[in-house]
Amino acid sequence: MKVLIVNNMAPFVWGGAEELAVHLQKNVIAAGHEAEVLRIPFQWEPASRIPSQMLMVRAFELMNVDHVIALKFPAYLIRHPRKTLWLLHQYRQAYDLFDAGQTNLPPGPAGEELRTLIRNADSESFAETRKIFTNSEVTRQRLQNYNGFDAEVLLPPINDAELFDGGQAGDYVFAGGRINDMKRQYLLLEALRHAPRNVKLLIAGPPDRPADGERLRALVEQLGLADRVRLDLRFLPRTTYAEYLNGAAAVAYLPFDEDSLGYVSMEAALAGKALITTTDSGGILSLVKHNETGWVAEPEAEALASVLAQACENPQRAAARGAAAKALWLSLGINWPQTVEKLLQ
Amino acid sequence: MKIALCSSFIPFLPSGARNIVEWLQAMLEKEGHQVERVYLPEVDAPDLLFQQMTAFRWIDLSAADRVICFRPQSHLIRHPHKILWFIHHLRVFYDLWDTPYRTYEDDLRHRGLRDALHQADTAALREARHVFTNSQVVSERLTHFNGIDSEVLYPPVIDAERFHSRGHNDEIVYVCRLEHHKRQHLLVEAMALTRTPVRLRLCGASISNTYPDALKQQVAAAGLQGRVMLENRWISEQEKVDVLADCLAAAYLPLDEDSYGYPSIEASHARKALLTTSDSGGVLELVRDGDNGIVAAPTPQSLAAAMDKLYTERQRTVAMGERAHARLDELNISWSHVLKRLLA
Lengths: 345, 344
What we know:
heterodimer, A: alpha/beta, Rossmann fold, 2 domains, six-stranded parallel beta sheet, 12 strands, globular, B: alpha/beta, 11 helices, 17% strand
C-alpha cells in the first residue's frame, strides 16, 4: 500500500512530532509498504491567517496515495477517501487553552468566530475519517468532550527500541531526560543525603534553562555528594543515553503528574531495569508496581532514600524487578509493528 | 541563510524534478545554509487547478530569508524574496495544447481556463526577484508565452565523479521513467529494423502499468525478447553507474523535452555517446550530431540506422563519448556556478 503520512511543518523547526513522523515512515516501510511524509507549512501567528491555511490544506489534491495517516491540526483536514488520524494535537488554543484563557485567538466575537470555525472544520474532518487514534488518554478525553468523537489511545512506541537491550547492571541509579523542576531531579539529590553511601546517582540530560542545571550543581556541592553523583547535563547523543541506561542498577523517573508513561520509563522497562518513582507521578504509575516492577515512594526525601537503598543493596532483587518491568512493558503491546497494523486497518 | 526550496510533487513517484531540489539542498547545506524542503501535492486536472493554485497563494513561508521555487505551480507561492528556477510550465496548457497530450476539449470553457492560467502565471512570475530556467527552450517559452526574461542555469548532477566508463558492450541504454512522451516505444520499433546485433536496455518506473505493459507486448510481438531488456523499476544509483559504465551508448529521446535531462548528463559523465532525435527539444542544447552523439530523425528507420552505426563504427562511438564529457565543461554545468547565481 502507498501510505502518505501527513504532518505539519513549522518551517526551520524540528521537534518530537517530526521525529515521530520519520519513525512512523520507517516502520510502515518495514511492514512492507511504501511510505512518504508530506509536511504542510503552518504558522499560527497571526491568528487571523489560520482560516486561509485551513482552506489551503483542504484545497490540496492527492493522487497516487492509498492510505493517509494524519497527525496534527491543520494537516489532518486534508481530503482523502481513506484517512486515519493519529491525533497528536488539535488546535488547543481553540479548545482547552481557550477555556483556560490562554489563547492567541483575539478576544470578543472575532475570536469566538475563529474558534467556531476551527471546531466545525475539525468535526467535519473527523466525521470523514476512517478511524481516530490519539497519542494519550488526555487527548482522547478532549476529543470526546469537545467534539464528541470516540477514539482509541495508541501510545507512541519507542523510536529506537534496538538501543535498549539492557546489559550488565552497574552500581548507580540512572535519572535521564530533560532537567527541570517538574521532573524533580533535585529531589533525588535530597534523598541521596539520607541514603547509604553505596548508593550512587547518574543524572544526565539537557536542562530546560541554565538555572535548572545550576540548581543541581549547587545541591551536589551543598550536600557534599560529589563522590556519589555524576551530572552530565547536556543534550546527549542517543547512543550515550542508551549506554547510561543499559548500565544502570535501576532507573528513577519522578515527574509531577504527567499524562503519559514517559519515554524514559518505557525505555528503562524495555532494557529490563527496575523503576523508581513517586506516588504523585501520574502516567508512569501504570508501569511501576511497588515491589513488583520497582518501587513507588512518597514524594519526599527520606521515603525516596529508603527505596534507593533497596534498589542498590541486592542486585538479584533489582534484576528480578527489572525483568518484571520488561514483561509488563512487553505485555502492553506498544511496539511499532502492532502500531502500524492498527494505523493501517 | 534560511532558504526554503519549494516544489510540487506526486507522492511515491521519483522524478528528475526531485533531484534538482534535493541535490541543491545537499549543496546548500554543505555551504552551511539552513534549508527547508517544501513539497506540495498537485494534480493538473483543469477543473481542480485553480483551487490548488489558491492553496499555493496561502502558504506562509515568512520564516525563510528567501525561497527558491521549482516545479509548477510552486512559483505561485508568495514571498518578498522569491527566486524561481523554473523547470517547466503546465505544458498541456501551453506548448502541448494542440497535441494528443491534451485530453479535454478545445472549447470555450477550457480555453478560458487556459487563458486565466497564463495570466496567473505571468503575474506570479513577475513577483520573482530573478527567474532562472533549466534550458534555452524553457527560457524561450517564458518569453513567448509570458513575456518574461530569464537566465539559463543548467542543472548539474550530484556526485558526478562516480560516473565512469569501463568498456563498451553491445547495449544502448535508456535510463529514464517509462512514459509515452519519453518514447521508449520508438526505440523498440527501431530495434525491429536494425541489421546488427546491437541491443537495447530500458530501465525505469512508470506512473501506471499501461505504458510498460504496452512496451512488453511490443517487444514480444516483434520477437525481440533476446535483444531488448525491459526493466520496469527505478534502478538503484549503483546499478545506474554500472549500466552506464559498461554500455555502448546512451539514448534520451523525449518529445520536445524542456531540458537536456539528467539521463544525458549522467551518460556524458560516463563518457558515452548520446542518441537523441531532432524533435527532443532541450536535449539538442547538449547533443550535436556527429560530435558527442547522433541526432536522428524521430522515425524507427532513422533510429535503426543510427543504432547500427553506433554498433559498427565503434571507434567513432568511443570518441563521441569522450566529446560528450568535454561538452559538460563547455556549457559550464557545475554546482559552483549554480550556487553563485542562486545566492547572488
